[in-house]
Amino acid sequence: MSKLAIALACVTGLALGGAATVRPAFADAPSVKDIMRNYGDLAEAMYSDSLAKAKDLDRAIDAFLANPNATTQKAAQDAWKAARVPYMQTEGFRFGNKIVDDWEGNVNSWPLDEGLIDYVNKASYGDSKPENPLYTANIIANKKVRLGPKILDASKIDKKVISQLNSALDVETNVGTGYHAIEFLLWGQNLHGTNPGAGERPASDYDLKNCTHENCDRRRDYLKAASSLLVDDLQEMVGDWKPDGAARQALAKENDSQQLSTILTGLGSLSYGELAGERMKLGVLLHDPEEAHDCFSNNTQNSHFYDEVGMHEIWNGKYNGATPVSGASIADLARAKAPDAAKRVDDAMKVVHEKLNVIKVKADSGEMGYNQMLAAGNDAGNKLILDGVDALVAQARAIEAVVAALHLKVKIEGSDSLDDPSKVAKAK
User: From CA 228, how far away is CA 238, in angstroms rounded?
Assistant: First the structure.
C-alpha cells in the first residue's frame, strides 16, 4: 500500500495542488476549435493512462493466478486501486458524449448483484430479488444460465460469455464485466456492513490444488476474462479519442455552441445527478453501505475524489499524466467572456476539492471508512458526505451560471436523491 499511497499523493499534488490558483486568462478568448482540440487531447491522454494501468492490473492478475496467495492477491488488489485513479478522472467526458455513455456500462456499471457472478453469503444477500431473476444465477457454478427465452452456454467462461450478462433481462444490476466485477472477484463480498473492513475473499478461491468454495478453475477463467476485456474496452475508447477517432469525429459534426455544451453537460451532470446524487446522497438517505461506489474494496473515497480531480482538469484544460496535456479550455473562454461566472466555478471547485479531500484523508487513514460514514446515527460521518454533496451541488449551479453567461443550452442530469428524496424512501 505504501507505493500506492505515494502514487495517489503524487497524482493529487500534480492535479490539484494548485487548485487555489487561477491561470491567467487569454488576452483574447480562445477559439472553440482550439478548446475542442485540447479537450480531445485530454480525453486521449486520460484514457491512455487508464489503459496502461488496466494492463498493469492484468499482469498483476496473471501473477496472482500463477501463484495464488495473500501476497499476490494483495498486489492485484493494489493494482486495481491504482487503475481506478486515472479512470475516474475520465468520467467528466460522460453524459455529453454519447459514444462514451453508450460504452461506459461495459467498464464501470454499478451497483451489481454479485450473486449473478459467484457464491454469496445467503444470510446477508438473500435468496432472491423479485425484479431480478438472475439475482443468484452464479455463472461460475452453473454452466448454463437462462436469459429469458434463451439459454446462455457458459460451459467455457470467456469474454464473449461474460459480456452477455451486462443488463441481462434489462436489469441494470446484472453486471458481468468491468472494474466492479473484477473488484468483487478480487475482494469478495464486504460483509462488515457499516463497521470497519472490506471484502475478505481467500486467495485459495483461485488455488487449483487447495480450492475453497469450489469451481476455482471457472473462477480463474472469469477473473482473467474480465481483466482482459477491461483492457480491450479501454483500448477501444483510446482509439475513439485519437485525432481521427469516432468521438472526435462526432464532436466535429456539431456547431460551436453544441461542442461547448458537451463539455459543460459532462461536468454539470457528473457533479450533480451522478456524484452528488446517486453516488453520495443516496447512500446517506438509505444508510446503506451497498450504495458505496467501491463497496467491496472500501475504496469509495478515492473514486469520488478523483472524479473531482478530473472535472477540475477538464474545466482548466490541463492534465499532468504520463503524457501531460495543456491548452485552451472552457475555463479560459469563460474567464474572457464571463469572468464573474468563471470565478464562481473556480471557487466552487476549490470547495469541492477540500470537502472530498477531508473524506479521503479520514477514510485512507483508517480513522473512519466511507461505509462507516454512511451509518445511521453517525451524524459526524453523515455530515462529511453531505458537506461534499452540498459543495458538488453548488459547483453544478456555478456551471449552470457559465452556461447562461455563454448563452448555451445544457440539460444537467438530475437525481431523485436530490430532487425528490421522498421517491427514494417510497422505492425502498
Answer: 16
